[in-house]
Amino acid sequence: MRTMMIWSLCLIISLSNRILVIASSSRHLCRPYQKDALLEFKNEFHYNVMAGKTESWRNNTDCCSWKGISCDPKTGNVVELDLQDSFLNGPLRSNSSLFRLQHLHTLDLGLNNLTGILPASISNLKYLRNLTLYSCNLFGKIPSSLGNLSYLTDLDLSVNDFNGELPGSVGYLNRLTELRLVSANLSGKFPLVLLNLSELTWIDLRSNKFEGMLPSNMSSLSKLIYFEISGNSFSGSVPLSLFMIPTLVDLDLGRNDFTGPLEIGDISSPSKLRVLYLGENNFNGPVPRSLSKLVSLVSLDLSFWNTRRGKVDFTIFLHLKSLRD
Ligand SMILES: *[C@@H]1O[C@H](CO)[C@@H](O)[C@H](O)[C@H]1NC(C)=O
Ligand SMILES: *[C@@H]1O[C@H](CO)[C@@H](O)[C@H](O)[C@H]1NC(C)=O
Ligand SMILES: *[C@@H]1O[C@H](CO)[C@@H](O)[C@H](O)[C@H]1NC(C)=O
Ligand SMILES: *[C@@H]1O[C@H](CO)[C@@H](O)[C@H](O)[C@H]1NC(C)=O
Ligand SMILES: *[C@@H]1O[C@H](CO)[C@@H](O)[C@H](O)[C@H]1NC(C)=O
Ligand SMILES: *[C@@H]1O[C@H](CO)[C@@H](O)[C@H](O)[C@H]1NC(C)=O
Ligand SMILES: *[C@@H]1O[C@H](CO)[C@@H](O)[C@H](O)[C@H]1NC(C)=O
Ligand SMILES: *[C@@H]1O[C@H](CO)[C@@H](O)[C@H](O)[C@H]1NC(C)=O
């Protein structure tokens, strides 16, 4: 009798759990005001080819089931909008309905034709963690309001035609781990505010118009794995502190105006560096012996190094057992 009671109690508990689960999943119909914002956002653009994700967006269906949308399973709020390569044509207006989707944490509008500026009101989406506006035909200044997106971990503004410098307010994004600004027509000195962002693992500034020297104190970027700045006009010597970052795997400094003999310093802990591109700069002097300590190297580019007619000591490379290129 006793066990029977316990069993039926268990049954009731497990059944009611299941009912709760069913009830909560049926609550995931999207909120009407968020659905309206999405439909209005869709209509802000014109479409040359109607084959994008927004084609499945209809007023009489649950927006959480639409292509490119994810809702939070607990609250039902729209938290993710992924409209990469969705044939959006037209500018992102500062009063866009997009900015009413206050709960978004991921926004990907990459590979669309948003010919226009990136409006300052992007910072209304204050819970954004991932922002991807890769290849969107954006121009004008990058708005300093970006610095207000304090939850941002991933920012990709690559392949756009911006004007001027990276705003200093980026220095407030202290959760940022990945920063991609490839081919974004950015100029100015290396943004010193990046030294403030100690969570950064990835900095990609390739193919811009940056110039001047790298700062000497780069060791605050203590989690950096990828540092890629090729195709700019950086000059001066490469700071020793860069080689001291123990996490570094990929260092691409090619096609700049770096000069002088290269100092790598005393590397005590085993280096993780796998890729080292130094080609097409103005390095000169002997190839440094300490290169032989970079025992994980797989790919090394020293092209256009001016050895000043000195002989290269090829025994340096004998220690590099993983080297392929
Ligand atoms: C969606 O439908 C509702 C109810 O029929 C209507 O009030 C709302 O304006 C519609 N939204 C859009 C964007 O058409
Ligand atoms: C948004 O701004 C544009 C001009 O930039 C204007 O034509 C449009 O009516 C505005 N939309 C709303 C909903 O205020
Ligand atoms: C992108 O938009 C601009 C301005 O609206 C237009 O002139 C251009 O043709 C568009 N490009 C493509 C590839 O659709
Ligand atoms: C956001 O960025 C992180 C870090 O790169 C990545 O792991 C994650 O998949 C991204 N989230 C989305 C939804 O794209
Ligand atoms: C950023 O946020 C601060 C404080 O909330 C506000 O005063 C400022 O106007 C915002 N800046 C921009 C550019 O949106
Ligand atoms: C690139 O930036 C420069 C200023 O540094 C500006 O004069 C030029 O118009 C920009 N190019 C494009 C294609 O926007
Ligand atoms: C650096 O980050 C801290 C918070 O982590 C912030 O208080 C400070 O203003 C930032 N400095 C710059 C120059 O951005
Ligand atoms: C790093 O060096 C730059 C000059 O190269 C200096 O302006 C900056 O204050 C230094 N930052 C830290 C954190 O030491």
Please give a structural write-up.
There is one protein chain. The protein is an alpha/beta fold and 325 residues long. The chain has three helices and 19 strands. It has helices at residues 2-26, 32-43, 240-243, and strands at 69-71, 78-82, 106-108, 116-117, 130-132, 138-140, 154-156, 161-162, 178-180, 187-188, 202-204, 209-212, 226-228, 233-236, 250-252, 257-260, 275-277, 282-283, 299-301. The strands form three sheets. An eleven-stranded mixed beta sheet has the order 1-2-3-5-7-9-11-13-15-17-19, with no helix packed on it. A hairpin with a 6-residue loop joins β1 and β2. The chain is elongated. It binds 2-acetamido-2-deoxy-beta-D-glucopyranose (NAG) (8 copies). One 2-acetamido-2-deoxy-beta-D-glucopyranose (NAG) binds at residues 120, 123, 144-145, 148. Its main location: membrane. It holds the Pfam family LRR_14. It is a single-pass type I membrane protein.
Brief characterization of the structure:
Helix content is 13%, strand content 18%.
Named once each, the bound ligands are: 2-acetamido-2-deoxy-beta-D-glucopyranose
**Average residue pLDDT:** 91
How many strand elements? 19
Strand order of the largest sheet: 1-2-3-5-7-9-11-13-15-17-19
The helix/strand series, from N terminus to C terminus, equals HHEEEEEEEEEEEEEEHEEEEE
Our count of helices gives 3
Radius of gyration: 26 Å
What distance lies between the first and last C-alpha atoms, to the nearest angstrom?
Answer: 77 Å
Q: What about the largest sheet?
A: 11 strands, mixed
Estimated share of beta-strand residues? 15-25%
What spatial form do the alpha-carbon principal axes imply?
A: elongated
Poorly predicted residue ranges: 9-26
* Structural class based on helices, strands and sheet pairing: alpha/beta
Share of helix, binned: 10-25%
